[in-house]
Structure prediction request, 157 residues.
Amino acid sequence: MSEKKIMLTYEGLKKLEAEMQTLKTERRKEVAEKIKDARGQGDLSENAEYDAAKEEQAEIEARIAVLEKMLRNAEVIDEEELSEGYVSVGNKVLVLDREFNEEVEYSLVGSAEADPLRGKISNESPLGAALLGRVAGDVVSVDAPDGTLEYEIISIG
Prediction:
């Protein structure tokens, strides 16, 4: 069974690679030093610092494993080849939120890069999925807990 491809922009790929490099080089050393210091304090069975350091080490190793899997399955979006005629991952989309009569710009990214507070929405989110493949002038409807929301696509860049 093939694993799910992770859509990433070039910027997102570099960010994940940098995070992994930091975890492998800096954070591993920091935690190893914490474990060494805690061991030097004697009895490990009642050593909270040792337990905390071992837990931190496990979290770092788990994150490294997740990042390695993501990078192994990454599909980088070639921003040079993006069509400005229809919405695809990597595009910026200016929409009109019809409920609030407000223009909002979103960058459509893969789920690994999504950050709604910064205007980066996943292609797998309800709005992102509704926008995919659409053109300027289209109106998309998105089911939300409070009802159906409508967005009109103003421009695609």
Remarks:
- The chain has a mean pLDDT of 91.
- Strands lie at 6-8, 74-76, 92-97, 102-109, 120-122, 139-144, 147-156.
- Residues 56 and 115 are 25 Å apart (CA to CA).
